[in-house]
Amino acid sequence: MSDSEQSEEQNREFKTDEDFDPEFFRNIERKSKIFSCIQCGTCTASCESGKWTALKTRNIIRKVCLGDLTVLKDPDIWLCTTCFACWERCPRNIQPTGVIMELRNYATKLGNISPNHRAVVGYLGNTGHAVPINDITKERRKELGLDELPPTLFKYKTEGEGKELENFKEFMFDLPPVKEEKKPKKKEEKK
Amino acid sequence: MVKEKTFAFFLGCIMPNRYPGIESSTKFMMEKLGYTILPMERASCCPAPGVFRSFNKVDWMVAAARNICIAEQMDTDIITVCNGCFGTLQEVDHHLKENEDHKVLVNEKLKKLGDYEYKGSINVRHAAEVLGYEVGPWGIEEFLVRKVKARVAIHYGCHLLKPVSVRGLDSAEKPSMLEDFLEPLGAESVDFVEKYTCCGAGGGVKAFDGNASMTIFEEKMKNIDAVKPDFILSPCPFCHLQFETGQDWLNKNKGTNYDYPVIHLSQLVAYCMGMDQKQTGLQFQMMGKDYIFQSEEIKQEEEVS
Amino acid sequence: MTKANNEANVSELETEEEPRIAVFVCHCGHNIAGTVDVEKVAESAKDLPNVVKAEHYMFMCSKTGVKMLQDSIKELGVNRTVVASCSKLQHGRTFAKAIEEVGLNKHKHQQVNVREFCSWVHKNDKEGATQKAIQLVEAGVNRARKLEDVETRKIPTTKAALVIGAGVAGLRAANDLAELGVPVTLIEKNSTIGGHMTQLNKTFPTLECPQCSISPLTNGVANHPLIDLYTLAQVKNVEGSMGNFTVEFEIKPRYVHDNCTSCGECSSVCPIEVPSEWDKGMSMRKAIYKAYPQAIPSTFVRDKQTCIGCNSCINVCPVQAVDFSMKTEKKTVNVGSIVVAAGFNEYDPSEIEPYHYGQDGYDDVITQLQLERMLSPTSITNSEVLRPSDGRIPKNIVMIQCVGSRNDQVGNAYCTGVCCKFAIKNARILKENYPNSNVTICYIDVRTPGLNFEELYKSAQEIGVRFIRGRPSEILRNPLTGELRVIVEDTLSMTPLQLKGDLVVLSAAMVPPEGIGPLGSRLHVLRSKEGFLKEFHIKMNPTLSSKGGIYLAGAIQGPKDISESVAHAGGAAALAAAHLVKGYIEKEMLIPKIDYSLCISCGLCKTVCAPAAIDVDQDRVYSVNEVACKSCGMCMPACPTGAIQLINFSDDQLRDEIIPLSGGEAHCHD
Questions:
Q1: For labeling, which of A70, B63, C557, C558 is most exposed (least CB within 10 Å)?
Q2: Which residues of A touch B39 (CB under 8 A)?
Q3: For the segment A70-119, what is each residue's pLDDT rounded down to a tens digit?
């Protein structure tokens, strides 16, 4: 792509058929329901996050209907707190919360996942917990008459034939490698 | 057949690893109520419904099914005191009981993790629901040794009740399960604006964008502060964590002066059933360190011991 | 051969006449002949047994084509005709009528469809299409061979009609029937007639007074010599079929005799107050009451459920009209037609939890019909719009559209189609009456088709009604101040909004009336999945129900506004009157016959018979009601022994038809 073509793409406000891939989401769950969306805005109005953040649920559903894949790079899909308010109220039963969580699955496969979330996956693999134990809590557990360590996977990490925690780390939540984000840097340089 | 009046106690992450007082309170409460509480050895994170389901739905189901299998091998229903754990385990259990294809898929992958096969032979329960509908406001009174005099801001959290079609517990728009249950405990529920909205922690938002999470929480806290309750009560350790760390963050970043104690349902009930306040672990929490329950004894000391 | 023997042979020939079949293959211009080799098809038909003539022609439905058909009968003694052209629905009737004109029974014609079945679907396979046409023609000839005459019988009808429901549709139907000279029994389940229209303040799009519009009709019907009106009446049992029904209905006691002078003394002494149903709970009524001042009949009525029996009313009545000993009565009428005009209910929005309709603290959330009651000249507020919570005039009024419509969660996928007009009309009136108020309509789509309705929409925009494209997610109440806020996204500007709602008006859907289930079963008519009574054909016969002789008028068939209901009712009345005025119905006796040597009285035929045309007596002998039967043939496959056979569709005849199509095999039930 030549520089002039690239700048045209960046500047233009309109989109063409080539900007959409209506086939991309052909295996998405609830597909037919998503297409029955009437864009009434009940989801956005219900959204506790969207009141304060850039998350606009209705627009996300619209992008899925159009096959607009920019939705998978959109950080806004990670601002849903999964409170299910839109799911409960959608008059077409589209279950937007479920759609957003599924979009995040697609985004994850493309490597669009935040460093903090990678860290949480790391904790799970190393300790079996998303929030691992710390020394102060061990002390407090003892003070309250509880075992120092709860009887979870972490306590048994070195026991058992299969060493289950290792299996857990090996087979679960395999993430794509961290992307080298060059383009945004260039932009910054230009600016 | 699952064992009667027996539960496999699913701990999750935040309760055992941050708020052990909720764990000791839950054990105390359930045993006083006549239930047998069994440990679930080798259980893992549920895994959390917002984050892990978002990364890979299949692995999320597999890890949840593994936890359910542990209880299946014990022939007992699972009890949890966390909305997130309930959200994951109940939802996956419900889904796999209805979707044979996914059950096969999940069982295939479960073999890699160990000697597990999901059968669908047990149920997943939340303590709030056991208290609200099984023990009931009609049945709790005989177990109480004291009543608490307090104006309480109840926070249900999201995943206890929603999606309603999967949970089937109470209305999500105007629930009354906890208000009804707290009445015989002496606690007065105070209404506040947007009582049933999210605390802002879920869905991976707290990890993804802490500031966004705090913005949502700030509004919640404002609405609670407007009615000046004695404490905030929730049936979920993750909401609990958000209310604790959130108040601290607002005090440091937004110039507020919040110091509302955050109390889990189990902690309050255990206290009313005779547990020493110190054993509920409230003194280890960040907020309301000086708070002492205002209570009224209703039974003789001897009966308690 | 003796003479006697010869005569016997002749008479045998007459009873079992030799089939003489003529086959005509139509080109239909290029429609058929462009793909099917019509000459070859006609040629191959010539060799079939009993075929005495086989030809092809450009347009069989033309005058010349029809004459070819008729000439073959006159000249060659043809007694069965087969035309291979279009569908039976398209021109089957044309050819049947043609042979009838020259003396053959019209059921001796067999139509074969080689256009839809061959040329149109196999355009790229001319040979295959031709082969298929040859087989279809052979099947048609086989079928024609055993066709029997079917008699058309005149059945006298009872010149009287029953109309169920006395809202605007029922009144209109009753009035039209009576004006056509048909005596009408009109029954209404409530204590007064006029229906929902009497509750309204103004009608759209012209903002006319509905009481003024409907009162000539209510008065006219109540006083019409050919109309018997019964209020508090409900259908209990219906028997018979088109032209001759016997209907039993029950009349609940009014507890006040007709000598009531409507003075109102009884009401004024009655100690009981309950919310008025007619006023949608916006005012109270007594246990003995008249729904509203202009109510017809004007006789008061006692509500037995709420009455405490203190007898004050009995004692005070100056004409001794109050009588607690009145009993439920039963009446039976014979009618030739039934018109169902049972109307609709306003959807109960309490099902949609986020709107909190009917809950404590949400008194200021009302429905359009309740708003209509406040605005009306007969309202308790003197036509002022006052908040139910504090009696103040609201500053900010928000209307919410599609409450119970277009909502899969509550099972109503349909658009009611009336609420946009209804809400826009009321919003405009509010803005006119209270120019300083803010009136907002939250909508998903504004649907105002038809003459004068977009103009109404425009006039509301011009006067300052605010339109926000978004469906509110909830009505939020501040528990500290009691204020209501409507939470909605303005989807056009992508802005989440919190609108002050001093009064929130829900545009609730139109849903089937309560009790429609039992009424539908008593009438033996089908219902749509939404619960309304289903029309025979959505386009061509929207006023006939699934059962002959029972017609639908107004919103019972689906949501309608007043204009549509009145037009629908007029159509229903005309159809209902036609065969009563004529005095008879013509019915082709294309009905099943039961071979009692095979019948095992299992009753399966009766269970599958939608028009309920199979009767059974106390000895479990089943018989076909020739008038009610719709010739659908559902009874045949249901019968395990083949005892019931529809004339000209018998297993034997169908087997003959199938053989050439299946390559020689046919398995019917045996």
A1: A70
A2: 151
A3: 999 999 999 999 999 999 999 999 999 999 999 999 999 999 999 999 99
Query: Could you state, in order of their start, the residue ranges of all structural domains in chain C?
Result: 3-150, 161-252+329-335+520-582, 265-316, 345-511, 589-647
Summarize the confidence of residues C68-94 as an average pLDDT: 94
Confidence category of residue C611, pLDDT binned at 50, 70, 90? confident
Number of C-beta neighbours around residue A170 at 10 A: 11
| CATH node for C3-150 | 3.40.50
Confidence check: pLDDT of C193 > 50: yes
Q: Which fold has domain B6-126?
A: Glutathione S-transferase Yfyf (Class Pi); Chain A, domain 2 (1.20.1050)
Shortest alpha-carbon distance between residue C411 and chain B (Å): 15
- C429-466 b/e with 16+ CB inside 10 Å = b? bbbeebeebbbbbbbbebbbeeeebeebbeebbeeebb
C478 contacts on B by Cβ (under 8 Å): 193
Q: How far is B138 from chain A (nearest CA, A)?
A: 30
| Mean pLDDT, residues C126-130 taken together | 95
Domain C345-511 has CATH 3.50.50.60: yes
Token pair 């009524």: residue = C285
Q: Which residues contact C520 (CB under 8 A, 6 or more apart)?
A: C526, C527, C533
Mean local confidence (pLDDT), B134-162: 96
Render B20-42 in DSSP notation, one character per residue. Answer: HHHHHHHHHHHHHTT-EEEE-TT
| A142 and chain B in contact, CB less than 8 A | no
pLDDT band at residue B299 using 50, 70 and 90 as cut-offs: low
Average of per-residue pLDDT values in chain B: 95
Contacts B227 to C, Cβ<8 Å: 480
pLDDT digits (tens, 9 = 90+) for A132-161: 999 999 999 999 999 999 999 999 887 766
Q: How confident is the model at residue B109 (pLDDT cuts 50, 70, 90)?
A: very high
Q: pLDDT value at position C14?
A: 43
Q: Give the C-alpha separation, C324 to C664, whole Å.
A: 77
The residues, any chain, with a CB within 8 Å of residue C323's CB and separated by 6 or more, are C255, C256, C257, C314
Instruction: Compare C8 and C560 and report the one with higher pLDDT.
Output: C560
Mean pLDDT on C206-212: 93
**Assigned CATH topology for domain B143-297:** Rossmann fold (3.40.50)
The pLDDT value recorded for residue C420 is 98
Mutate to test the interface with C, among A34, A37, A40, A84 (most CBs of C within 10 A): A40
Sort strands C396-403 and C365-367 into parallel, antiparallel or unpaired: unpaired
Domain C589-647 has CATH 1.20.58.480: no
CATH homologous superfamily, domain C161-252+329-335+520-582: FAD/NAD(P)-binding domain (3.50.50.60)
Q: What is the interface size between A and C, counted as CB pairs within 8 Å?
A: 63
pLDDT for res C11: 39
Domain boundaries, chain A: 20-112, 115-171
Residue B300 pLDDT exceeds 90: no
Burial class (CB in 10 A: 0-12, 13-18, 19+), A4: exposed
Q: Write down the pLDDT at residue C1.
A: 38
What local confidence, expressed as pLDDT, does residue C4 receive? 43
Asked whether the beta carbons of residue C496 and residue A50 sit closer than 8 angstroms, the reply is yes
Chain position carrying tokens 């609730």: C508
Mapped onto helix, strand or coil, the DSSP state of residue C1 is coil
Cβ pair C408:A91 closer than 8 A: yes
Q: Return the half-sphere exposure (C-beta side, CA atoms, 13 A cut-off) of residue C545.
A: 32
What integer pLDDT is reported at residue C428 of this predicted model?
97
**Contact at CB, C474 and B172, closer than 8 angstroms:** no
Specify the fold of A20-112. Answer: Fumarate Reductase Iron-sulfur Protein; Chain B, domain 2 (1.10.1060)
